[in-house]
Model the fold of this input.
Amino acid sequence: AVIVVSVMLLAIGPVISFSVGTRFQAKRVELATQAARTYIDGVKSGAIPVPTLDSKKVNDRDAPTGGTLSCNTTTNLCNSVTDLYCVDFDGGGCLNTSPVDMVVQGLAYHPSPSQTSTTQSYVLGVRVYRANSFASGVTLTKPTSNKSVDSLTTNSLGNRSLPLVQMSTEVLPKDARLQDHIKYRVQTPSPPSP
Done:
């Protein structure tokens, strides 16, 4: 009976540890999603500064530089760059030793390189990294196009260099009208010249 129980425990042990790791990672992804939504809402309301507007698409933008993390406790802006924003979930300040604090990288995109202000609509991209990804020795990277490499399972159980969440949304100026936005987004081509 002892041998049978031992064999069963050996067979079930890896499944239990994998399920605990997956559950822990799901909680971490949930926190990262909350951080991303908080950041997006803050930018839309004007409480958080709009990140630097660029004509490079969100997926083409580089990951932030890792290795250090110093965040202003009043504004939650990190590393003296408005494109990084900390969400402190444990109340101890944003530290690169915290496993639950999140750092949001904001990426504002507009296809026209001449647009340098946010008076027109733009796409706001968000990547969320764990704060402990900014520890020395970790090189942050952007997600690859290979979805099997960036899955929750492989990304979560040890690769701190990848973001936990990446999403994007379109942001309209506060005084924008829907008609102007539709006209701006769906510009009808001019008729061909004779």
About this structure: Residues 22 and 153 are 7 Å apart (CA to CA).
